[in-house]
Amino acid sequence: MDSTTWLYIALIIFLAGLIIAIIGVVLLIVGMKEPMKEIKGSANNLKERAGKLQLEASSLSHHANELKEDIQMKSEKITVLVDAAKGTMNSVIDLNASVRSITGNIASRVDHDRENIAQVNEWSNGAIKLLTLLENQRRIESNRPTYSSPSLHDEKQY
Fold this sequence. Notes:
The chain contains 3 helices and no strands. Helix content is 91%, strand content 0%. Pfam families: DUF948.
């Protein structure tokens, strides 16, 4: 066989291989069509889920901001309440100090006025003795027989 025949046989084998390769590529492309549709559907599904997750994340962020503001307002109110309680406590402490001061002042005055108390006791005892003496004299005078002049009616009987 001569070389041209070999060349034709090689060309036929090459063309057959090329046809088989083209058929294989076409079959590959046709076979890839369904998985590509599924991949595209999965990508779209993932895109929708990502959108929903983003929406949920923004909603959660919004709620978190609202809770943060609510907590901040309540914290401010509690701070006002705590400050008021501290003010009340300070007022009670001041009142207690004032009561102690007044009590101490009264106690010191009582200590200084011991002489006056003793003098008042003496005067009271003297007044009680005087009243008792006067009352005893009244009793004695009321128990004494008094002299009365005889009445005219009594004289006629003698």
